Amino acid sequence: MSTRKRTLSGYKACKRCKTVMPEDAKQCPNCGSEEFVFKWRGMIVVIDPQKSCIAKRLGLEKPGIYALELVEE
Ligand SMILES: [Zn+2]
């Protein structure tokens, strides 16, 4: 397994709730936070949080696209 850090450019993740959004978004559409992380890894798409055990494990309650891991700079 590679240990190289891979990030997706053009998108950023909310520092508070990990929602992934385009880099030009002014505010997080999920929680309204204005703090973002531009380096993150992995992505999870939650369609039905009630039925997804991964969403439950990650504590995600709303449908959306989330980063799995925020990379500290
Ligand atoms: Zn947020």
TrEMBL record:
Which stretches make up the Spt4/RpoE2 zinc finger domain? Answer: 11-71
Q: SMART domains of this UniProt entry?
A: Spt4 (SM01389)
GO biological process terms, alphabetically, are: regulation of DNA-templated transcription
Does this entry carry the keyword ATP-binding?
no
Q: Name one Pfam family in it.
A: Spt4
A GO CC annotation given for this chain: DNA-directed RNA polymerase complex
Q: Which domain of life is it from?
A: Archaea
Which keywords belong to this entry?
A: DNA-directed RNA polymerase, Metal-binding, Transcription, Transcription regulation, Zinc
Signal peptide (residue range): none
- Amino-acid positions noted as binding Zn(2+) in the UniProt annotation, renumbered to this chain: 14, 17, 28, 31
Alphabetized GO MF terms: zinc ion binding
Subunit-structure text:
Heterodimer composed of Spt4 and Spt5.
Q: What family is this protein classified in?
A: Belongs to the archaeal Spt4 family.
Q: What does this protein do?
A: Stimulates transcription elongation.
What is the designated name of this protein?
A: Transcription elongation factor Spt4
